[in-house]
Design a protein that fits this description.
18% of the residues lie in helices and 21% in strands. By secondary structure, the chain is of the alpha/beta class.
């Protein structure tokens, strides 16, 4: 089964490489399912083989394969501050606000056996509001949006014109950043994921890497495996 946390190209395009009549189920919010339905290229995924299932917000549900059998994994999807996918933005309206708090971007609480701890997967998030902090309390592990270290990182590096805020990604650092925003939340293990190649924390010898380590965070790496 595949669980989609939003409709960004780098989240949904991989579905097309799974089209060779291999059964699996797709789970997504109503907004993301509507986006797949509106783009005929996703019709290569035969619904008889690849069923699409609605993720009901804030309800724990067992994840089942295409055959309906439970996988042993349960998830709870919840909306997080984010934005609509880039290709869904209205072109020509540079000043428009494309932010969304209503399910275009979600986080996922992942659990297995009853009574065990939960892992939270939040690869995209625009800010750490009170609802998110409350939900993450007592998490066994948090995999969180680490796209940029500073909000203007890509602009300063000369590789783009957009800030993290404009892209729907909170910065790690600063008073409004994720490190500060989640500092007082009880989380056993904190790992930054979804890290852009401009982010200096990727350099293990950098001051920024040392700062996030000192704050109790880890940096995910390619090939990293975690057992829960």
């Amino acid at each position: 089964a595949v669980v989609l946390t939003n409709a960004d190209v780098d989240h949904v395009a991989g579905l097309l490489s799974l089209r060779e009549r291999e059964p699996f189920a797709i789970y997504a919010t109503a907004q993301v399912l509507a986006t797949l339905e509106a783009n005929s290229i996703f019709n290569v995924l035969d619904p008889a083989i690849v069923p699409r299932r609605l993720l009901a917000p804030t309800e724990e549900m067992a994840i089942c394969g295409a055959d309906g059998h439970e996988t042993g994994v349960a998830i709870e999807a919840f909306p997080v501050p984010g934005k609509v996918a880039l290709y869904l933005e209205q072109r020509g309206d540079a000043g428009a606000d494309f932010s969304s708090d209503t399910g275009d971007t979600i986080g996922v609480r992942i659990s297995g056996a009853v009574g065990r701890g939960a892992v939270f997967f939040v690869p995209g998030c625009a800010r750490t509001d009170a609802a998110l902090r409350t939900r993450l309390a007592d998490a066994a592990c948090l995999l969180f949006d680490g796209t940029v270290y500073t909000d203007d990182e890509m602009v300063t590096a000369g590789v783009g014109q957009k800030t993290g805020t404009r892209m729907g990604h909170i910065a790690m650092s600063g008073q409004a950043g994720s490190i500060a925003g989640l500092a007082d939340v009880k989380i056993a293990r904190r790992i930054f994921i979804h890290i852009n190649n401009t982010n200096p924390v990727l350099d293990e010898n950098s001051a920024e890497h040392a700062a996030i380590k000192a704050a109790g965070w880890e940096v995910a790496s390619d090939g990293m495996e975690m057992e829960f």
